[in-house]
Task: inverse folding
Protein backbone atom coordinates (compact mmCIF):
# COMPACT_ATOMS: atom_id res chain seq x y z
CA UNK A 1 0.00 0.00 0.00
CA UNK A 2 1.23 3.51 -0.86
CA UNK A 3 1.52 5.81 2.13
CA UNK A 4 1.75 9.59 2.18
CA UNK A 5 4.65 9.53 4.61
CA UNK A 6 8.22 8.23 4.09
CA UNK A 7 8.46 6.10 7.20
CA UNK A 8 12.20 5.33 6.83
CA UNK A 9 13.00 9.04 6.67
CA UNK A 10 10.82 9.83 9.68
CA UNK A 11 12.25 6.92 11.69
CA UNK A 12 15.77 8.10 10.91
CA UNK A 13 15.00 11.64 12.05
CA UNK A 14 13.61 10.21 15.29
CA UNK A 15 16.65 7.93 15.66
CA UNK A 16 14.54 4.78 16.04
CA UNK A 17 14.83 1.40 14.29
CA UNK A 18 11.59 -0.17 13.06
CA UNK A 19 10.81 -3.69 11.87
CA UNK A 20 8.99 -4.05 8.54
CA UNK A 21 5.83 -4.90 10.42
CA UNK A 22 6.11 -1.80 12.59
CA UNK A 23 6.82 0.32 9.54
CA UNK A 24 3.54 -0.82 8.01
CA UNK A 25 1.60 -0.24 11.24
CA UNK A 26 3.03 3.22 11.87
CA UNK A 27 2.71 4.29 8.27
CA UNK A 28 -0.98 3.47 8.41
CA UNK A 29 -1.43 5.21 11.74
CA UNK A 30 0.43 8.31 10.60
CA UNK A 31 -1.71 8.38 7.45
CA UNK A 32 -4.76 8.35 9.68
CA UNK A 33 -3.41 11.22 11.74
CA UNK A 34 -2.56 13.25 8.65
CA UNK A 35 -5.96 12.50 7.15
CA UNK A 36 -7.63 13.73 10.32
CA UNK A 37 -5.57 16.92 10.36
CA UNK A 38 -6.40 17.40 6.67
CA UNK A 39 -9.93 18.21 7.78
CA UNK A 40 -8.62 21.58 8.95
CA UNK A 41 -8.06 22.48 5.33
CA UNK A 42 -11.82 22.46 4.82
CA UNK A 43 -12.24 25.45 7.14
CA UNK A 44 -12.51 28.79 5.37
CA UNK A 45 -9.77 30.99 6.87
CA UNK A 46 -9.80 33.75 4.29
CA UNK A 47 -9.72 37.08 6.06
CA UNK A 48 -8.29 35.63 9.26
CA UNK A 49 -4.84 36.83 10.30
CA UNK A 50 -2.26 34.08 10.91
CA UNK A 51 -1.28 33.69 14.55
CA UNK A 52 1.13 31.55 16.53
CA UNK A 53 -1.22 31.38 19.48
CA UNK A 54 -4.86 31.01 20.28
CA UNK A 55 -4.78 33.68 23.00
CA UNK A 56 -3.84 37.34 22.57
CA UNK A 57 -1.25 37.24 25.33
CA UNK A 58 2.23 38.67 24.78
CA UNK A 59 5.46 39.64 26.55
CA UNK A 60 5.33 37.12 29.36
CA UNK A 61 8.70 37.24 31.06
CA UNK A 62 10.62 37.30 34.31
CA UNK A 63 13.48 39.45 35.60
CA UNK A 64 17.01 38.15 35.22
CA UNK A 65 17.49 36.83 38.75
CA UNK A 66 19.38 33.60 39.31
CA UNK A 67 17.60 31.01 41.43
CA UNK A 68 18.71 27.77 43.01
CA UNK A 69 20.27 25.12 40.83
CA UNK A 70 19.68 21.42 41.37
CA UNK A 71 22.36 19.70 43.46
CA UNK A 72 24.34 17.51 41.08
CA UNK A 73 22.89 14.33 42.65
CA UNK A 74 19.38 15.48 41.82
CA UNK A 75 20.38 16.51 38.31
CA UNK A 76 21.78 13.04 37.66
CA UNK A 77 19.09 11.07 39.54
CA UNK A 78 17.38 9.88 36.35
CA UNK A 79 20.55 9.17 34.37
CA UNK A 80 20.85 5.47 33.48
CA UNK A 81 24.64 5.79 33.63
CA UNK A 82 26.92 8.50 34.99
CA UNK A 83 30.63 9.15 35.35
CA UNK A 84 32.55 12.19 36.65
CA UNK A 85 29.21 13.82 37.46
CA UNK A 86 28.23 13.63 33.81
CA UNK A 87 25.63 11.59 31.97
CA UNK A 88 27.06 8.72 29.94
CA UNK A 89 25.63 8.37 26.43
CA UNK A 90 26.66 6.11 23.56
CA UNK A 91 29.56 7.52 21.63
CA UNK A 92 28.34 10.21 19.27
CA UNK A 93 30.75 10.98 16.47
CA UNK A 94 30.75 14.45 15.02
CA UNK B 1 42.04 31.32 -13.78
CA UNK B 2 41.50 33.80 -10.97
CA UNK B 3 38.97 32.91 -8.30
CA UNK B 4 37.01 34.98 -5.88
CA UNK B 5 36.02 33.61 -2.48
CA UNK B 6 32.61 34.44 -1.03
CA UNK B 7 32.24 34.21 2.73
CA UNK B 8 29.28 34.56 5.05
CA UNK B 9 29.55 34.11 8.80
CA UNK B 10 27.21 32.73 11.42
CA UNK B 11 28.25 33.92 14.83
CA UNK B 12 26.89 32.75 18.13
CA UNK B 13 27.27 35.16 21.03
CA UNK B 14 26.28 34.28 24.58
CA UNK B 15 24.41 37.14 26.21
CA UNK B 16 25.78 37.99 29.64
CA UNK B 17 22.98 37.33 32.14
CA UNK B 18 22.70 35.93 35.66
CA UNK B 19 20.06 33.35 34.80
CA UNK B 20 19.22 31.19 31.79
CA UNK B 21 17.09 32.12 28.81
CA UNK B 22 13.89 30.41 29.89
CA UNK B 23 14.43 29.61 33.57
CA UNK B 24 16.11 30.92 36.72
CA UNK B 25 18.97 28.37 36.84
CA UNK B 26 22.23 30.32 37.16
CA UNK B 27 24.56 30.81 34.19
CA UNK B 28 28.28 30.13 34.57
CA UNK B 29 31.49 28.84 33.03
CA UNK B 30 34.05 26.48 34.57
CA UNK B 31 31.68 25.21 37.28
CA UNK B 32 31.55 21.53 38.26
CA UNK B 33 29.61 19.55 35.63
CA UNK B 34 25.82 19.50 35.92
CA UNK B 35 25.61 21.99 38.76
CA UNK B 36 23.78 24.70 36.77
CA UNK B 37 20.57 22.85 35.99
CA UNK B 38 16.96 22.89 37.15
CA UNK B 39 13.76 21.16 36.01
CA UNK B 40 13.42 23.40 32.92
CA UNK B 41 17.03 22.90 31.80
CA UNK B 42 16.64 19.12 32.15
CA UNK B 43 13.21 19.17 30.47
CA UNK B 44 11.48 17.33 33.29
CA UNK B 45 7.80 16.61 32.63
CA UNK B 46 5.39 19.47 33.23
CA UNK B 47 7.85 22.37 33.13
CA UNK B 48 7.18 25.60 31.25
CA UNK B 49 9.75 28.06 29.92
CA UNK B 50 9.51 31.77 30.86
CA UNK B 51 11.55 34.37 28.95
CA UNK B 52 14.42 36.25 30.53
CA UNK B 53 13.61 39.95 30.08
CA UNK B 54 17.24 41.04 30.18
CA UNK B 55 18.21 38.71 27.34
CA UNK B 56 15.51 40.27 25.18
CA UNK B 57 16.61 43.78 26.15
CA UNK B 58 20.18 42.91 25.23
CA UNK B 59 19.40 41.48 21.81
CA UNK B 60 17.27 44.51 20.95
CA UNK B 61 20.18 46.69 22.06
CA UNK B 62 22.53 44.68 19.83
CA UNK B 63 20.13 45.17 16.94
CA UNK B 64 19.88 48.92 17.53
CA UNK B 65 23.66 49.17 17.85
CA UNK B 66 24.18 47.41 14.51
CA UNK B 67 21.43 49.24 12.66
CA UNK B 68 18.97 46.34 12.40
CA UNK B 69 15.21 46.77 12.08
CA UNK B 70 13.58 45.51 15.25
CA UNK B 71 10.55 43.39 14.42
CA UNK B 72 7.39 44.78 16.02
CA UNK B 73 6.35 41.19 16.74
CA UNK B 74 8.51 38.09 16.95
CA UNK B 75 7.88 34.58 18.15
CA UNK B 76 9.57 31.39 19.28
CA UNK B 77 9.94 28.17 17.35
CA UNK B 78 11.05 24.67 18.16
CA UNK B 79 13.99 23.33 16.19
CA UNK B 80 13.61 19.58 16.46
CA UNK B 81 16.56 17.19 16.45
CA UNK B 82 17.75 14.21 18.39
CA UNK B 83 21.16 14.70 19.92
CA UNK B 84 22.12 14.36 23.59
CA UNK B 85 23.27 17.98 23.89
CA UNK B 86 19.65 18.95 24.42
CA UNK B 87 17.37 17.00 26.78
CA UNK B 88 14.16 18.38 25.24
CA UNK B 89 15.03 17.02 21.78
CA UNK B 90 14.31 20.49 20.48
CA UNK B 91 16.01 23.82 20.82
CA UNK B 92 13.90 26.92 21.39
CA UNK B 93 14.93 29.33 18.64
CA UNK B 94 13.46 31.80 16.16
CA UNK B 95 12.83 30.61 12.63
CA UNK B 96 10.84 32.80 10.30
CA UNK B 97 10.30 35.81 12.59
CA UNK B 98 13.66 36.81 14.09
CA UNK B 99 13.75 39.79 16.41
CA UNK B 100 16.42 41.73 14.43
CA UNK B 101 16.38 42.03 10.65
CA UNK B 102 19.14 43.49 8.44
CA UNK B 103 21.80 45.74 9.92
CA UNK B 104 25.47 46.30 9.19
CA UNK B 105 28.82 46.31 10.92
CA UNK B 106 31.59 48.81 10.15
CA UNK B 107 34.95 47.07 9.81
CA UNK B 108 38.56 48.17 9.32
CA UNK B 109 40.73 46.20 6.92
CA UNK B 110 44.43 45.83 7.77
CA UNK B 111 46.38 48.97 6.77
CA UNK B 112 49.62 48.97 4.73
CA UNK B 113 51.45 48.89 8.06
CA UNK B 114 50.55 48.73 11.72
CA UNK B 115 50.83 52.50 12.10
CA UNK B 116 48.54 53.31 9.22
CA UNK B 117 44.77 53.11 9.28
CA UNK B 118 43.23 50.63 6.87
CA UNK B 119 40.14 51.09 4.68
CA UNK B 120 36.74 51.04 6.34
CA UNK B 121 33.56 49.53 4.95
CA UNK B 122 30.31 47.95 6.10
CA UNK B 123 29.43 44.25 6.17
CA UNK B 124 25.68 43.68 5.85
CA UNK B 125 23.82 41.45 8.27
CA UNK B 126 20.90 39.21 7.34
CA UNK B 127 19.41 38.82 10.78
CA UNK B 128 20.00 38.31 14.50
CA UNK B 129 17.85 35.94 16.47
CA UNK B 130 17.68 34.69 20.02
CA UNK B 131 17.84 31.07 21.13
CA UNK B 132 19.07 28.88 23.97
CA UNK B 133 22.54 27.36 24.07
CA UNK B 134 22.90 23.57 24.32
CA UNK B 135 24.87 21.28 26.64
CA UNK B 136 28.46 20.22 26.08
CA UNK B 137 29.54 16.74 25.01
CA UNK B 138 32.92 15.31 25.92
CA UNK B 139 33.91 12.50 23.60
CA UNK B 140 35.88 9.46 24.73
CA UNK B 141 36.91 6.22 23.00
CA UNK B 142 33.83 4.24 23.92
CA UNK B 143 31.24 6.75 25.03
CA UNK B 144 30.46 10.42 25.44
CA UNK B 145 29.79 12.39 28.63
CA UNK B 146 27.18 15.15 28.80
CA UNK B 147 27.36 18.30 30.90
CA UNK B 148 24.20 20.45 30.84
CA UNK B 149 25.71 23.51 32.56
CA UNK B 150 25.75 25.49 29.31
CA UNK B 151 22.29 24.33 28.23
CA UNK B 152 19.77 27.15 28.26
CA UNK B 153 22.26 30.03 28.30
CA UNK B 154 20.87 32.95 26.25
CA UNK B 155 22.49 32.84 22.82
CA UNK B 156 22.29 35.24 19.89
CA UNK B 157 22.88 34.04 16.38
CA UNK B 158 24.19 36.76 14.09
CA UNK B 159 24.10 35.94 10.39
CA UNK B 160 25.90 38.00 7.74
CA UNK B 161 25.14 38.23 4.06
CA UNK B 162 27.65 36.37 1.84
CA UNK B 163 29.62 39.56 1.19
CA UNK B 164 33.13 38.95 2.48
CA UNK B 165 35.96 37.87 0.20
CA UNK B 166 39.05 37.10 2.27
CA UNK B 167 40.09 35.59 5.60
CA UNK B 168 41.36 39.05 6.60
CA UNK B 169 37.95 40.56 5.98
CA UNK B 170 36.22 37.85 8.05
CA UNK B 171 38.76 38.45 10.79
CA UNK B 172 38.21 42.22 10.66
CA UNK B 173 34.45 41.67 10.85
CA UNK B 174 34.76 39.42 13.86
CA UNK B 175 37.06 41.88 15.60
CA UNK B 176 34.67 44.79 15.03
CA UNK B 177 31.62 42.79 16.09
CA UNK B 178 33.36 41.58 19.21
CA UNK B 179 34.37 45.10 20.20
CA UNK B 180 30.85 46.41 19.69
CA UNK B 181 29.39 43.62 21.84
CA UNK B 182 31.94 44.16 24.60
CA UNK B 183 31.44 47.95 24.44
CA UNK B 184 27.71 47.59 24.92
CA UNK B 185 28.18 45.11 27.78
CA UNK B 186 26.18 42.50 25.90
CA UNK B 187 28.80 39.76 26.09
CA UNK B 188 32.42 39.33 27.12
CA UNK B 189 32.94 37.45 23.81
CA UNK B 190 35.69 35.24 25.23
CA UNK B 191 36.18 32.60 22.54
CA UNK B 192 38.09 30.32 24.89
CA UNK B 193 35.02 30.19 27.11
CA UNK B 194 32.73 29.63 24.14
CA UNK B 195 31.06 33.00 24.62
CA UNK B 196 31.63 33.73 20.94
CA UNK B 197 31.64 30.95 18.35
CA UNK B 198 31.93 31.22 14.61
CA UNK B 199 30.88 29.11 11.63
CA UNK B 200 31.64 30.17 8.07
CA UNK B 201 29.91 29.53 4.76
CA UNK B 202 32.54 29.52 2.07
CA UNK B 203 32.37 29.18 -1.69
CA UNK B 204 34.52 30.19 -4.62
CA UNK B 205 33.67 31.37 -8.13
CA UNK B 206 35.64 32.55 -11.13
CA UNK B 207 36.45 36.25 -10.77
CA UNK B 208 33.71 38.28 -12.41
CA UNK B 209 31.03 35.61 -11.97
CA UNK B 210 27.96 36.82 -10.04
CA UNK B 211 26.31 33.49 -9.24
CA UNK B 212 27.37 31.87 -5.98
CA UNK B 213 29.40 28.66 -6.09
CA UNK B 214 28.80 25.45 -4.11
CA UNK B 215 28.81 26.31 -0.44
CA UNK B 216 30.79 24.56 2.27
CA UNK B 217 29.83 25.15 5.88
CA UNK B 218 32.94 25.28 8.04
CA UNK B 219 32.60 24.54 11.75
CA UNK B 220 34.84 24.51 14.80
CA UNK B 221 36.53 27.86 14.17
CA UNK B 222 36.98 28.22 17.90
CA UNK B 223 39.66 30.85 18.14
CA UNK B 224 40.29 34.15 16.48
CA UNK B 225 43.27 32.71 14.61
CA UNK B 226 41.23 29.60 13.80
CA UNK B 227 38.77 31.79 11.90
CA UNK B 228 41.52 33.26 9.75
CA UNK B 229 43.50 30.06 9.21
CA UNK B 230 40.48 27.81 8.72
CA UNK B 231 38.90 30.06 6.11
CA UNK B 232 42.20 30.52 4.31
CA UNK B 233 42.78 26.78 4.13
CA UNK B 234 39.26 26.08 2.93
CA UNK B 235 39.40 28.69 0.15
CA UNK B 236 42.70 27.22 -1.10
CA UNK B 237 41.37 23.68 -0.85
CA UNK B 238 38.37 24.57 -3.00
CA UNK B 239 40.53 26.33 -5.60
CA UNK B 240 42.94 23.37 -5.76
CA UNK B 241 40.05 20.93 -6.16
CA UNK B 242 38.46 22.93 -8.97
CA UNK B 243 41.79 23.35 -10.73
CA UNK B 244 42.28 19.59 -10.62
CA UNK B 245 38.93 19.23 -12.33
CA UNK B 246 37.09 17.90 -9.27
CA UNK B 247 33.59 19.12 -8.57
CA UNK B 248 32.79 20.54 -5.15
CA UNK B 249 29.94 19.17 -3.08
CA UNK B 250 27.77 21.06 -0.63
CA UNK B 251 28.89 19.73 2.73
CA UNK B 252 29.80 20.56 6.29
CA UNK B 253 33.49 20.45 7.13
CA UNK B 254 35.28 20.86 10.38
CA UNK B 255 38.48 22.86 10.98
CA UNK B 256 41.18 20.78 12.60
CA UNK B 257 43.44 23.37 14.21
CA UNK B 258 46.13 20.85 15.22
CA UNK B 259 46.65 19.56 11.69
CA UNK B 260 45.71 22.81 9.99
CA UNK B 261 43.21 21.18 7.62
CA UNK B 262 39.46 20.89 7.09
CA UNK B 263 37.80 17.48 7.00
CA UNK B 264 34.27 16.47 6.01
CA UNK B 265 31.81 15.79 8.82
CA UNK B 266 29.65 12.71 8.56
CA UNK B 267 26.64 13.63 6.52
CA UNK B 268 24.47 11.17 8.44
CA UNK B 269 24.71 13.27 11.61
CA UNK B 270 23.49 16.36 9.91
CA UNK B 271 20.13 15.65 8.40
CA UNK B 272 19.07 19.30 8.20
CA UNK B 273 15.41 18.68 8.65
CA UNK B 274 14.51 20.43 11.84
CA UNK B 275 10.74 20.48 11.35
CA UNK B 276 10.40 23.92 12.89
CA UNK B 277 7.05 24.86 14.35
CA UNK B 278 5.88 27.64 16.70
CA UNK B 279 6.51 26.82 20.35
CA UNK B 280 3.10 26.70 22.01
CA UNK B 281 4.67 27.17 25.46
CA UNK B 282 5.85 30.70 24.74
CA UNK B 283 3.97 33.86 23.89
CA UNK B 284 5.13 36.26 21.19
CA UNK B 285 7.24 39.33 21.96
CA UNK B 286 5.94 42.74 20.93
CA UNK B 287 8.42 45.60 20.88
CA UNK B 288 7.01 49.13 20.80
CA UNK B 289 8.73 52.46 20.11
CA UNK B 290 8.97 53.34 23.82
CA UNK B 291 10.87 50.19 24.58
CA UNK B 292 13.28 50.78 21.71
CA UNK B 293 13.79 54.42 22.76
CA UNK B 294 14.61 53.36 26.31
CA UNK B 295 17.26 50.94 25.09
CA UNK B 296 18.60 53.33 22.48
CA UNK B 297 19.38 55.78 25.29
CA UNK B 298 21.67 53.16 26.84
CA UNK B 299 23.73 52.52 23.69
CA UNK B 300 27.43 53.33 23.88
CA UNK B 301 29.37 55.25 21.25
CA UNK B 302 30.74 52.59 18.88
CA UNK B 303 34.55 52.16 18.82
CA UNK B 304 34.99 53.57 15.31
CA UNK B 305 32.81 56.58 16.16
CA UNK B 306 34.95 57.19 19.21
CA UNK B 307 38.12 56.90 17.15
CA UNK B 308 36.88 59.55 14.70
CA UNK B 309 36.01 61.80 17.64
CA UNK B 310 39.52 61.33 19.07
CA UNK B 311 41.02 62.40 15.73
CA UNK B 312 38.88 65.53 15.63
CA UNK B 313 38.53 66.53 19.26
CA UNK B 314 42.00 65.60 20.54
CA UNK B 315 44.06 65.46 17.36
CA UNK B 316 45.44 62.07 18.40
CA UNK B 317 47.46 60.04 15.90
CA UNK B 318 46.04 56.71 14.65
CA UNK B 319 48.59 54.69 16.63
CA UNK B 320 47.38 56.16 19.93
CA UNK B 321 43.69 55.78 19.10
CA UNK B 322 44.22 52.16 18.12
CA UNK B 323 45.59 51.49 21.59
CA UNK B 324 43.03 53.51 23.58
CA UNK B 325 39.80 52.97 21.66
CA UNK B 326 39.35 49.18 21.51
CA UNK B 327 39.22 49.01 25.33
CA UNK B 328 36.23 50.95 26.57
CA UNK B 329 37.58 51.19 30.11
CA UNK B 330 40.94 52.44 28.89
CA UNK B 331 39.31 55.11 26.74
CA UNK B 332 37.12 56.15 29.67
CA UNK B 333 40.28 56.47 31.78
CA UNK B 334 41.89 58.60 29.08
CA UNK B 335 38.88 60.89 28.80
CA UNK B 336 38.74 61.37 32.55
CA UNK B 337 42.42 62.34 32.57
CA UNK B 338 41.98 64.74 29.65
CA UNK B 339 39.01 66.35 31.37
CA UNK B 340 41.30 67.13 34.32
CA UNK B 341 43.89 68.75 32.04
CA UNK B 342 42.43 69.53 28.61
CA UNK B 343 45.50 71.38 27.25
CA UNK B 344 47.64 68.39 26.23
CA UNK B 345 45.51 65.39 25.22
CA UNK B 346 48.32 63.85 23.22
CA UNK B 347 50.75 63.96 26.17
CA UNK B 348 48.08 62.42 28.39
CA UNK B 349 47.43 59.72 25.78
CA UNK B 350 51.14 58.98 25.52
CA UNK B 351 51.56 58.51 29.25
CA UNK B 352 48.62 56.13 29.30
CA UNK B 353 49.33 54.18 26.11
CA UNK B 354 53.05 53.81 26.75
CA UNK B 355 54.05 54.14 30.38
CA UNK B 356 50.90 53.19 32.23
CA UNK B 357 50.06 50.17 30.05
CA UNK B 358 53.65 48.93 30.30
CA UNK B 359 53.67 49.13 34.10
CA UNK B 360 50.21 47.60 34.38
CA UNK B 361 51.21 44.71 32.17
CA UNK B 362 54.41 44.10 34.13
CA UNK B 363 52.44 44.15 37.37
CA UNK B 364 49.73 41.94 35.87
CA UNK B 365 47.02 44.48 36.67
CA UNK B 366 44.16 45.86 34.65
CA UNK B 367 43.27 49.49 33.99
CA UNK B 368 40.38 49.35 36.46
CA UNK B 369 42.90 48.26 39.07
CA UNK B 370 45.45 50.97 38.25
CA UNK B 371 47.29 52.43 41.26
CA UNK B 372 47.40 55.77 39.41
CA UNK B 373 44.12 57.66 39.06
CA UNK B 374 43.31 59.51 35.80
CA UNK B 375 43.49 62.86 37.62
CA UNK B 376 47.02 61.97 38.78
CA UNK B 377 48.17 61.38 35.18
CA UNK B 378 46.72 64.79 34.37
CA UNK B 379 48.58 66.22 37.35
CA UNK B 380 51.86 64.81 36.09
CA UNK B 381 51.38 66.28 32.61
CA UNK B 382 50.52 69.60 34.23
CA UNK B 383 53.80 69.58 36.20
CA UNK B 384 55.79 69.04 32.99
CA UNK B 385 53.74 71.67 31.14
CA UNK B 386 54.26 74.26 33.82
CA UNK B 387 58.02 73.68 33.80
CA UNK B 388 58.03 72.36 37.38
CA UNK B 389 59.75 69.15 36.31
CA UNK B 390 61.45 67.97 33.14
CA UNK B 391 60.25 65.06 31.08
CA UNK B 392 63.06 62.89 32.41
CA UNK B 393 62.19 63.64 36.02
CA UNK B 394 58.54 62.99 35.14
CA UNK B 395 59.45 59.42 34.17
CA UNK B 396 60.96 58.96 37.61
CA UNK B 397 57.94 60.55 39.31
CA UNK B 398 55.66 58.27 37.30
CA UNK B 399 57.36 55.14 38.61
CA UNK B 400 56.95 56.39 42.19
CA UNK B 401 53.32 57.19 41.49
CA UNK B 402 52.79 53.66 40.24
CA UNK B 403 54.51 52.17 43.26
CA UNK B 404 52.90 54.33 45.93
CA UNK B 405 49.71 55.74 44.43
CA UNK B 406 50.75 59.18 45.70
CA UNK B 407 49.99 62.43 43.85
CA UNK B 408 52.80 63.61 41.56
CA UNK B 409 52.95 66.98 43.38
CA UNK B 410 53.56 65.17 46.67
CA UNK B 411 56.32 62.99 45.20
CA UNK B 412 58.05 65.99 43.61
CA UNK B 413 57.91 67.78 46.95
CA UNK B 414 59.05 64.82 49.06
CA UNK B 415 61.93 63.89 46.81
CA UNK B 416 62.94 67.47 46.13
CA UNK B 417 62.63 66.93 42.37
CA UNK B 418 61.45 70.42 41.56
CA UNK B 419 63.23 71.77 38.53
CA UNK B 420 65.80 74.26 39.72
CA UNK B 421 65.02 77.76 38.53
CA UNK B 422 67.19 79.29 41.22
CA UNK B 423 69.37 81.23 38.80
CA UNK B 424 71.97 82.01 41.48
CA UNK B 425 72.74 78.30 41.86
CA UNK B 426 72.57 77.74 38.12
CA UNK B 427 74.96 80.59 37.43
CA UNK B 428 77.53 79.14 39.83
CA UNK B 429 77.31 75.74 38.09
CA UNK B 430 77.51 77.43 34.67
CA UNK B 431 80.63 79.35 35.72
CA UNK B 432 82.17 76.11 36.98
CA UNK B 433 81.35 74.26 33.74
CA UNK B 434 82.94 77.03 31.68
CA UNK B 435 86.05 77.17 33.87
CA UNK B 436 86.54 73.40 33.89
CA UNK B 437 86.03 72.75 30.17
CA UNK B 438 88.17 75.14 28.14
CA UNK B 439 88.12 72.85 25.07
CA UNK B 440 84.34 73.10 24.73
CA UNK B 441 84.44 76.81 25.32
CA UNK B 442 87.09 77.19 22.57
CA UNK B 443 85.02 75.14 20.19
CA UNK B 444 81.91 77.20 20.85
CA UNK B 445 83.78 80.44 20.41
CA UNK B 446 85.18 78.99 17.20
CA UNK B 447 81.61 78.64 15.87
CA UNK B 448 80.69 75.12 16.86
CA UNK B 449 77.19 75.75 18.25
CA UNK B 450 76.69 72.21 19.52
CA UNK B 451 79.66 72.48 21.86
CA UNK B 452 77.32 74.12 24.35
CA UNK B 453 75.56 70.79 24.88
CA UNK B 454 78.52 69.31 26.71
CA UNK B 455 78.57 72.25 29.09
CA UNK B 456 74.84 71.99 29.55
CA UNK B 457 75.30 68.33 30.44
CA UNK B 458 77.75 69.32 33.17
CA UNK B 459 75.28 71.76 34.69
CA UNK B 460 72.43 69.25 34.51
CA UNK B 461 74.64 66.70 36.22
CA UNK B 462 75.57 69.17 38.95
CA UNK B 463 71.86 69.89 39.49
CA UNK B 464 71.07 66.14 39.58
CA UNK B 465 68.75 66.62 36.63
CA UNK B 466 66.61 69.21 38.34
CA UNK B 467 67.75 72.21 36.35
CA UNK B 468 65.41 73.53 33.72
CA UNK B 469 67.30 72.83 30.46
CA UNK B 470 65.96 75.92 28.71
CA UNK B 471 67.14 78.20 31.47
CA UNK B 472 70.56 76.52 31.64
CA UNK B 473 70.89 76.96 27.89
CA UNK B 474 70.09 80.64 28.18
CA UNK B 475 72.53 81.28 31.04
CA UNK B 476 75.39 79.43 29.34
CA UNK B 477 74.95 81.27 26.05
CA UNK B 478 74.91 84.61 27.82
CA UNK B 479 78.09 83.79 29.69
CA UNK B 480 79.83 82.38 26.60
CA UNK B 481 78.73 85.34 24.53
CA UNK B 482 80.35 87.63 27.07
CA UNK B 483 83.70 85.86 26.41
CA UNK B 484 83.70 86.75 22.74
Result:
Amino acid sequence: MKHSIDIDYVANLARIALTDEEKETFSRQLDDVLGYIEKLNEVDVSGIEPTAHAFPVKNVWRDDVAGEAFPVETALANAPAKRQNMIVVPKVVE
Amino acid sequence: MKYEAVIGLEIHVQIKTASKMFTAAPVGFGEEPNTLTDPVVLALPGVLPVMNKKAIDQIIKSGLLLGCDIAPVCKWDRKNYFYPDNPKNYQISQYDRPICVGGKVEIEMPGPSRNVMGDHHFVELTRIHLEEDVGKLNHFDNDSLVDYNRAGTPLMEIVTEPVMHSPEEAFAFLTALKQAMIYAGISDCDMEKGQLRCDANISIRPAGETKLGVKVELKNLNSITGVRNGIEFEINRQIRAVEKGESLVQETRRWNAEQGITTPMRSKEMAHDYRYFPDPDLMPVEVDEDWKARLRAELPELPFEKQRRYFEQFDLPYTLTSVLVPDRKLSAYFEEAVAAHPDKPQAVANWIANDLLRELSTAGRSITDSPIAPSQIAGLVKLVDGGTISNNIAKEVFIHMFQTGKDPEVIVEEKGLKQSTDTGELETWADEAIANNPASVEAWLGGKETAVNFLKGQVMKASKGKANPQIVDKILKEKLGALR
